[in-house]
Model the fold of this input.
Amino acid sequence: MTLQHHDHAHHDAVCDRCIFDTDVHHFDEDVVAGSHQRMVLVDLWADWCGPCHFLSPVLVKVVPEYGGKVVVAKVEVDEEDNMKIAGRYGAHGFPTVLMFVDGEMVDRFHGAKPEHFVREFIDKHLAGA
Done:
């Protein structure tokens, strides 16, 4: 599995591939197949979306705390055909975060959320793993 590294100055070096960009061409490999090894959160976002810019630093801070058990695949929906991913999973507003485990989308949330919400969202699924 090849992950495309997304360079964030704020993420923890312990998890240098915790957050990466993907697109419609690499989604099945990066996310669906990748979720068989570890939980994958898909951040469907757009540059024009104010709440997306609030959520992104929350994910950048929280996800590396899990030491590689969870990664974030960022999908900019306005690039190329990436909106097809949003359509495929019924995401109509942004940001939408999809959670993939064992090749399946198992949960989602919409909108800008605080750190404690994101931690609880991840923890409830890690506890069941």
